[in-house]
Amino acid sequence: FFRKNSNAAMLSNYEVFKLLTDLKEQRKDSGKNKHSAGQQNLNTIMYETLKYLSKTPCSRQSPEIVKEFLTTMMPHKLTKAEKLQLLNHRPQTAVEIQLMVEESEERLSEEQIEELIQTVSDILPGDPEQENAVPADVEMDEAGHQSESLPPPVRNKEALDDLTACRSKICTWVAHLDPYICTKHRKAAILDS
Amino acid sequence: MFVLVEMVDTVRIPPWSFQRQLNEAIAEELNKKLANKVCVCVCVCVCLTTLLQRFLWSSVVYNVGLCICLYDITKLEDSYIFPGDGASHTKVHFRYVVFHPFLDEIMLGKIKYCSQEGVHVTMGFFDDILIPPESLQQPAKFSSRSDEAEQVWLWEYETDEGAHDLYMDQGEEIRFRVTDEVFVDTSPTGPATAATDAQAQPGQSTAPPAEDTGEKKEAPYTLIGTICEPGLGLLSWWNN
Question: Which chain A residues are Cβ-neighbours of B41 within 8 angstroms?
Answer without folding.
Answer: 1-3
